[in-house]
Amino acid sequence: MTRSTRSTRRSRTVALTASAVMIALGATACGGSSGDSGSGTPGKGGTLTVLNKADFDHLDPQRVYTTEGSSMDEEIVRTLTGWDETGSAPKLVGDLATDTGTPSKGATVWTFHLRHGVKYQDGTEVTAPDVKYGVERFFSSDINGGPPYASQWLVGGADYKGPYQGKELGSVQTPDKYTIVFHLNQPVADFNETTAMPGWSAVPKAHDTGSTYDTKVWSDGPYMIKSYAKNKELVLTRNTYWSQSTDPIRQQNVDEMDVKFGQDEAAIDQQIKADAGTAQTSIQQWPIAGSDLAQLANDPALKSRYYKIPAPGINYLAINTTRVKDLRVRQAIEYAIDKTTVRGAFGGSAYGDYATTMLSPGIGGYKKFNLYSANPSGNLAKAKALMKQAGDPKPTMSIAVENTPTQEHFADAVKTALERIGIHVNISPIEAANYFSTVNNTKNQYDLTWGDWIADWPNASTVLPTLFDGRLIKKNPQANQDLSYLNDPKVNTLIDKAARMTDVKQRNATYGRMDEQIMKDAAVVPLTYMNFSDMSGSKVGGVIPDTILAEPSLVHVYVKH
Description:
Layout: E1 3-4, E2 14-15, E3 31-32, E4 47-52, H1 67-76, E5 81-84, E6 91-94, E7 102-104, E8 109-113, H2 128-137, H3 149-153, E9 172-176, E10 179-183, H4 191-194, E11 223-229, E12 233-238, E13 256-261, H5 265-274, E14 282-284, H6 290-297, E15 306-319, H7 327-336, H8 339-345, E16 352-354, H9 380-389, E17 396-402, H10 405-419, E18 424-430, H11 435-439, E19 448-454, H12 464-468, H13 472-475, H14 489-500, H15 504-520, E20 524-535, E21 540-541, E22 544-546, E23 551-553, E24 558-559
Parallel strand pairs: 1-2, 4-13, 4-14, 17-18, 17-19
Antiparallel strand pairs: 3-15, 5-6, 7-8, 8-10, 9-10, 11-12, 12-13, 15-19, 15-20, 16-20, 21-24, 22-23
Helix pairs in contact: 7-9, 8-10, 14-15
Protein name: ABC transporter substrate-binding protein
InterPro entries: Peptide/Ni-bd (IPR030678), SBP_5 (IPR039424), SBP_5_dom (IPR000914)
Pfam families: SBP_bac_5 (PF00496)
């Protein structure tokens, strides 16, 4: 999921800059508080105001693929499984389902049993056929933008066109009202982590409004849509039929959530910092602007309402292995990059720890290692020696970045570092809103490309295969995520091997080896394990740092009176 400054692509990168990638990922411990700074029991009642730079790309659960939209959907829709994040590490639990599902036939069949008595906003009960119908919506061309897993994994998914022509998908079965069975075309040992994403939820056919469902999502969660004026305001109110006894994840503390769209990020930062009037009961879902980050992160007065949320993701520089063919030149780039100036462009230490691997701590499969400079500011002598071994070429390289101040400062830092070893760099700024659609199109190739990625769930299976399976380049010429154009048979073999493994320990060890091989190929320079930083007003309590989405989770939020 991309997240550019935290926004749209949950390729999983969100938007740090402006629009597309979800940069939210880091690995340091959460700073500030968990939001319970008021201690005592959560208050009931009141209105929580959410201040957002822009509207959600989607709230339709089968279309949402951003962190902000997914986080807001947790208040409205319930998924088969979900994450309990009240402990020291996220724990997968049953949500609509009674437990985390049962795999059979080598993890190619998954069975879930639904809780009894989960109710929609009109008091009718949620059933297995409603979940089946919801999942089938993934396949309709009217419902686009969501993650690809249903079409990749469900038997018959390649040819199925969705439920609107009256056809059903045979590989999703509902033997009774409370049981749903999925038949997969390959073993997927962590399928029950996929089912925690918003699309694996119930949609009652009678209330489906197709492509306009974004503003009319039918609730089985604690809150329902009261009003929604796109790009202006979304108001959620209590779903009176929701019951705490059937929900292991959420609470229903506030009366309403009022989401306001359209203010500049820095203006939101200053409003919440000032903590006057409704700002006291407000929170932001987009991260603090890079220009404000260092100052706000280090302000002791804000500590109890500042959330530094580590996310399962990475900010990196891809080296195009088909254009920069000499391994020694790529290795020289690894040693030459000064990560201290690079991180400074993104807001400094609050933005994340220096990275040496493509998997970040907290992701299943992460292995700690460092093949290049022990010093984050680089090793110039080693870089120059490698360039000498390569015959001292003086290449000119292009670097693609978003056209935002943050990214342009980053590009300048890369340019300065590489010029010291004889590589001249031309900076190619790309409109932030179109950045990923541009660099993911194989027609537009650069020598160096900035990228960031957030795992869809905390497992290497949603990171390395997506970013480094070279066989996908031809398959997805307009949606190529392999920005380094790496097509290493050793990596591809490990990807296939890991996909077949049902033993999580063995699979994780394989992903660790894969990460090392990618770094031996010098295909990417990992820069930082990302954090997203957000703030709330002084009267907001119960905020949980959600390290799956790198968002402040509102599932237990309350307003102090």
